[in-house]
Amino acid sequence: MFLFLAIVLVTTACQSNNEKNDTVRLAEVTRSIFYAPMYVAMEEGFFEEEGIDIDLITTWGGDKTMTTLLSDGSDIALVGAETSIYVNAQQPNDSIINFAMLTQTDGTFLMARNEASFDWDDLRGSTFLGQRKGGMPQMVGEYVLKQHDIDPHIDLDLIQNIDFANIANAYASGTGEYVQLFEPQATMFEEEGLGHIVASFGEESGTIPYTVFMAKESYLEKHNDLIERFTRAIYKSQQWIYEEDPNTIAKSLSPFFEDTSTDIIASAAERYRNQQSYATDPLFTKEAWDNLQDIMEEAGELPKRLDYDRYVDNTWANQVVNE
Known about the structure:
Keywords: Signal
Pfam families: NMT1
Family: Belongs to the bacterial solute-binding protein SsuA/TauA family.
Protein name: ABC transporter substrate-binding protein
Shape: globular
CATH superfamily of the largest domain: Periplasmic binding protein-like II
Subcellular location: Periplasm
Number of domains: 2
Structural class: alpha/beta
CATH topology of the largest domain: D-Maltodextrin-Binding Protein, domain 2
């Protein structure tokens, strides 16, 4: 009897050890506290609970991220939804489908070198260190500036020839009077006395599908169960980040930002949470899709309007939210 039980236990253990998690190759457009719920899902074991191992790569820029996805260098991409519009407007054989929203506002902050009280008119005639043409930070930035009657191409000395990954370094080196920066760079620069956060583009621009999980249509068709489990892990983390205190969040994020103090991580995460930049669920609404295309059209970057029902699939998001 004891021998039989021992054999059963050993056999069960071997079966458990042989059961491997599904690996998802995930490409993120940059490394930012703006994407905190994704890192939380990794660090707090939410992906592990769903039988998923994440192979995370940082591709530093929307164009590079989409190239990685299209060339099968990744299975899923976390990037601005505008990249899916650029690709799908060319009618590829394998469309790019947006299936879960991670952030729902712009994630950049306007930094000024001087601490004097800020007015948007102060930007006129200034040197503005902008973002990549056609990318979400630049398009949202232009949209917000125009709401304040500032034409970025006429009223500013706009610099756009610096690679995305080097913008923060360029500002730190003295280029530009104003710059758009993500966290944690914005808070770090304040701490270092390099500038001051004077406005939030996220608060100014409204709900936008700023960063979204997307994949090729063929991948989604072949991995229905996996995508549901992936989306469930993200939803768990979205709920978690609105329930926990900033210090707990910082502890979870710190392995992804080893050169950043936990105080800065906590401050940056709280700043994003307070302005509800983190989506509270993975549902990608038509309102957000339409707002995105309006902003792209305003910037002169919209190739053509694309149908929401064709390129956004909330199947898995609806499933996990309604469980």
